[in-house]
Amino acid sequence: MTRITENIIEAFAIELLDKLGYEYIYAPDIAHDGENPERDSYAQVLLLNRLQNALKRINHSIPADSQAEAIKEIQRIASPELLTNNETFHRLLTEGIPVSKRVNGDDRGDRVWLIDFKNPHNNEFVVANQFTIIENGNNKRPDVILFVNGIPLVVIELKNAADENTTINSAFKQVETYKAVIPSLFTYNGFVVISDGLEAKAGSISSGFSRFMSWKSADGKAEASHLVSQLETLIQGMLNKETLIDLIRHFIVFEKSKKEDAKTGLSSVVNIKKIAAYHQYFAVNKAIEETLRATSE
Fold first, then answer.
1. 3-class SS at 34?
2. How confident is the model at residue 15 (pLDDT cuts 50, 70, 90)?
3. Distance (Å, rounded) from C-alpha 66 to C-alpha 114?
4. What mean pLDDT do residues 156-179 have?
5. Are 242 and 250 in contact (CB under 8 A)?
6. Mean pLDDT of all residues in the chain?
7. Distance separating alpha carbons of residues 179 and 183, to the nearest angstrom
8. Pick from 244, 211, 32, 248: which is nearest to 127 by CA?
9. Cβ(62)–Cβ(203) under 8 Å?
10. Among candidates 250, 242, 182, which has minimal Cα distance to 43?
11. φ and ψ at 255, to 5 degrees?
12. Is the per-residue pLDDT at 257 higher than 90?
């Protein structure tokens, strides 16, 4: 009997993503000292060549220097607060990056788009494993990262359910460590997936463990069978190209929330990032579809 290991779970996830049309990359190969380098150093989390190529493809009417300035804009995000950085990037990602361009001798405003939201298949989807990041002397290697146009939008952390010393909560704690010691990766993060091969849940970088949720349907029509692993259902239902792009664009919000300190009783206002649950996602899209159909009639 084959013993289940984290490597087997990782390979299973990568195989599922490959079937969804993701390009697979073994991250050590594209490191600055790898066979096909795409990074200047282990500190670099954006795949800049892929991002530059995507911007050329998506932003036909924007001059090259304005596209380059847009990339610099997202590289300059650097407040002390991780969630503030993440919210700033999310706004630029979903609303476009304001730039100016010369038209007939006049300066005119325009926007550079990092992702083609109208045509998901015009974007480049990459799944990379063992992507080493070194920041402030901390060396970490998340299990799997999903890149869209060179941007690390999804981090997947895996543990082995067959190991009695690890649980899905262990995967969550590992992500919390990453956030603390390699925060630059999470400036660009859309959401996080944690799994032990059996359970699989997704949440934002501000979500506590209890706020991570399963994605229980691959197509929105019926809940998946209990015989299908949660990881497989989540990948097929949440990480397919169309749904991932739709989630990033329309189903993530940042909200202010009042938090009370249990010890002192003092209240403070904190920022939280929310991502729609699977039933909310499918219900909203179905309602929109019905509304459009009714109005067209």
1. coil
2. very high
3. 13
4. 87
5. no
6. 91
7. 5
8. 244
9. no
10. 182
11. -130, 150
12. no
Tokens representing 106 are 């006049």
> 17 phi and psi, to 5 degrees?
-70, -35
Pick from 22, 6, 3: which is nearest to 14 by CA? 22
Q: Which amino acid is at 249?
A: R
* Predicted model pTM: 0.91
Beta-strand pair 200-203/191-195: antiparallel
Residues 6+ apart with CB under 8 A from 80: none
Quick one: tokens of 84?
């503030």
Start-end of H helices in 182-274: 184-187, 230-238, 241-250
The conformation of residue 161, written as its DSSP 8-state character, comes to T
- Predicted local confidence at residue 167, as pLDDT: 85
In this predicted model, what pLDDT tens digit does every residue of 34-57 receive, in sequence order?
999 999 999 999 999 999 999 999
Q: Is the dihedral of CA 116, 70, 129, 33 positive or negative?
A: positive
Structure tokens at 21: 């049309």
Read out DSSP for 134-158? EETTEEE--SEEEEETTEEEEEEEE
Give which of 8, 236, 274 is closest to 143, Cα–Cα: 8
pLDDT at 104 over 70: no
Q: What is the pLDDT of residues 201-231, one digit of tens each?
A: 999 999 999 999 999 988 887 788 887 899 9
Of 74, 40, 45, 43, the residue nearest 136 (C-alpha): 43
For residue 240, the model assigns a pLDDT of 97
C-alpha distance from residue 83 to each of 34, 86, 95, 109, 273 (Å): 32, 5, 18, 28, 8
Q: Which pair of tokens denotes residue 19?
A: 């079937």
